[in-house]
Amino acid sequence: MSSVFYISIIPESGIINGVCELKGEVDDPNYRRVDSLDDSLVGKHYNDETGEITFVQQQQYQKVMDSKTFMLLLTRAEMKALQESTNEIIQDTYHLFEMRNGEVNTESDIFQEVMDAAVSTGILTQERADELSLGIPYQYV
To answer: pLDDT for 80-137, tens place per residue?
Structure first.
């Protein structure tokens, strides 16, 4: 039996909250079949009528955070690429983040300059830079 890939969806919002690989068909109204095991789908919106998956820009994000918190948003591969970058803007910013726990404002011109440099050097895709520019979701308890 071959593997089948699914996304799980939060019914009220259509937001994808998981991707999984299963050994057969699933009959659950909160799961939709997809072509591959793609973790980047988590957090995106699934349109039940069209089957289209789109990036969702939500309003309730924390735009200012300490640099250690921001660095936790990066994947290992992104972190390694930033560490190894020869781009002066990226080097200066990375060392600033690493050396002291400074403030990051994802709406600032400096932050956008760093994201632009990361995209132009191939460290980040434009979509990933846009995701990081959103900041971090507020946590409600």
So the answer is: 898 899 998 888 877 777 665 677 888 888 888 989 999 999 999 998 888 888 876 6
Task: Report yes or no: 63 and 69 within 8 Å, Cβ to Cβ.
Answer: no
Q: Which contacts of 118-127 are long-range, i.e. CB under 8 A and separated by 24 or more positions? A: 118/82, 118/85, 118/90, 121/85, 121/87, 121/90, 123/78, 123/81, 123/82, 123/85, 123/90, 124/78, 127/55
Is the distance from CB of 33 to CB of 5 less than 8 angstroms?
yes
Name the token pair of 98: 């690493």
* Pairwise CA distance, residues 136 & 73, whole Å: 8
Query: What was the pLDDT predicted at 121?
Result: 92
Using a CB cutoff of 8 Å and minimum separation of 24, what contacts does 107-116 make? Answer: 107/63, 107/133, 113/89, 114/89, 114/90
pTM, two decimal places: 0.51
Q: Which tokens sit at 69?
A: 């918190």
Angle between helices 88-99 and 76-84 (to 10 degrees): 120
- Alpha carbons 80 and 132: distance in angstroms, whole number: 16
